[in-house]
Amino acid sequence: QLKLEDYKDRLKKGEALNQDQLEAVEKYDEVVHNLEFAKELQKTFSGLSQDLLKAQKKAQRRESLMKLEAEKKKLRTILQVQYVLQNFTQEHVQKDFKGGVNGAIYLPSKELDYLIRFAKLTCPERNENL
């Protein structure tokens, strides 16, 4: 653009320009228009790029929150199962299941024994003093 402005100034001062320079001066307005268009296009692309980055960050945050919620749900389920299994290690719970009383279904001793052993293998001992 600076070169074209120089040609234009030289032409105004009456200097003779060669054919290529004259054609370039004639296209000065077109070049300026194209430059302005390119600047606007660059601004548009820059804005779209920023919007895309924001959307990606938002999606990543949403995905992280969903993963965290899924992990919490798994942990809750594990703790619930552990709580149920730990109850099978208590004497009064075992008696209820052996007799099918107090809302417990009847479990044969062999099955109850399996549950008790499974509970001891999968549930860590709790220190009630903590």
Keywords for this structure?
130 residues; mainly alpha; 5 helices; rod-shaped
Give a structural overview:
The protein has 130 residues and is mainly alpha-helical. The chain has a domain at 1-67. The chain contains 5 helices and no strands. It has helices at residues 2-12, 19-26, 28-87, 91-99, 109-122. The longest helix is centred in the middle third of the chain and has 60 residues, at 28-87. The two termini are 79 Å apart. This is CAPR2 protein. Keywords: Coiled coil. One of its GO terms (molecular function) is signaling receptor binding.
Structural class: mainly alpha
Alpha-carbon distance between the two ends: 79 Å
Strand content: under 5%
Largest sheet: none
Number of strands: 0
Number of helices: 5
Overall form: rod-shaped
Order of helices and strands: HHHHH
How confident overall, as mean pLDDT?
Answer: 88
Runs in which pLDDT lies below 50 for 5 or more consecutive residues are none
Radius of gyration: 40 Å
Range of helix content:
over 70%
SSE topology sketch:
Blueprint (H helix, E strand, L loop, with lengths): L1 H11 L6 H8 L1 H60 L3 H9 L9 H14 L8
